[in-house]
């Protein structure tokens, strides 16, 4: 008995495996290659196979898979042949959340940081919430934790519509900006999935939506019409159909911090974050709205937000050498890249911003090449490297140069090691180099720092 995870080293899979292990379940799994994550899971006592083979799969286990696992995978194939129970990662996460107030955070961008903010705030105010987040959270550790508190915070993945397997008590939707068109086909289908997600709320559940985003505003209006309880947040006005609106005003950004005043029907509250970026004030407003809905006083939530110090791969400082700062960020959608570079511009001051961008997925590169080029133009220098394929096969004619060719001064360096060396060589004291993307570009930070230190 127990659960066998195919691809257990993935960010989402490892979190669920750890949560079910904490329940006392027998957990095992495999991954194509060893990593710090597989080492960590093995250290917890999980039997982790490196390499995937049909012989690894226990005959009596429920097999947990994800959209990244192809039908041709030998472990999935043997499980299907035997008639074993097979579930998607999201279904396993739903099992892990049983008996808790389930808070699901969704959106094309911002969901990891918002989930992490809320988990961090609740940990400080409540003591011990549970969470499932696709990234390491500074100050509270791993992306998965089973606590003794009543609330379970989870990042809800919209990429393959698997977030429709949840029935939350509360949902935060940061934005509904079209992405994952390889799965949905059209922007309309993408938005319709979020409408269905809102209807997955338990009776009396609450939708918290950012009305600064047009897609989320349309979702909020649709939900209110359907009788779903609604709270909105943003810099602009909310909807008259919302129970309340959390508005950001008196905003300022300096010294690596973001500040603002959050106001709603209960009063006004000063908020200061120890992370940069206008987008992070929006994430904080969504967090503040959700936490106050869960019963915590606004002043206490504001205080707890001030202690949040970020998540791994979200504007994460990797180090400094010869006066040059290297920062890593997971941004892989044009809007995310734009927000990251705006934050970098604020952080760099008089220094230059040098972006090393690795496109993620051929389909996304094809669909958003012009938008990526426009976003990357915010950097003083932009170096684009080869596409990180992830789960996809190549698309003829689609490569990183599709983006750089649309930019004035854009550079395409196909080999990522050569791209890292080039970024290091062109940087000067006071500059900020960013490695940007959802793939293995994250490994280049130390490489860049080493080259700068010895040039």
TrEMBL record:
- Residues in domain Mur ligase N-terminal catalytic? 3-98
- Which InterPro entries is this protein grouped with? Mur-like_cat_sf (IPR036565), Mur_ligase_C (IPR004101), Mur_ligase_C_dom_sf (IPR036615), Mur_ligase_cen (IPR013221), Mur_ligase_N (IPR000713), MurCDEF_pg_biosynth (IPR050061), UDP-N-AcMur_Ala_ligase_MurC (IPR005758)
Reaction catalyzed: UDP-N-acetyl-alpha-D-muramate + L-alanine + ATP = UDP-N-acetyl-alpha-D-muramoyl-L-alanine + ADP + phosphate + H(+)
One Pfam family, short name please?
Mur_ligase_C
Q: Which organism is it from?
A: Ancrocorticia populi
Q: Part of which pathway?
A: Cell wall biogenesis; peptidoglycan biosynthesis
Key words, A-Z:
ATP-binding, Cell cycle, Cell division, Cell shape, Cell wall biogenesis/degradation, Cytoplasm, Ligase, Nucleotide-binding, Peptidoglycan synthesis
Say where the protein is mainly found. Answer: cytoplasm
**Binding residues for ATP:** 107-113
The entry's cellular-component GO terms read:
cytoplasm
Which GO BP terms sit in this record? cell division; cell wall organization; peptidoglycan biosynthetic process; regulation of cell shape
Might you give the EC number(s) for this enzyme?
6.3.2.8
- Give the similarity note: Belongs to the MurCDEF family.
| Protein name, UniProt field | UDP-N-acetylmuramate--L-alanine ligase
Residues of the Mur ligase central domain? 105-290
Coiled-coil annotation reads none
Q: Where in the cell is it found?
A: Cytoplasm
Job of this protein: Cell wall formation.
Tell me one GO molecular function of this protein: UDP-N-acetylmuramate-L-alanine ligase activity
**For the Mur ligase C-terminal domain, which residue ranges apply?**
313-439
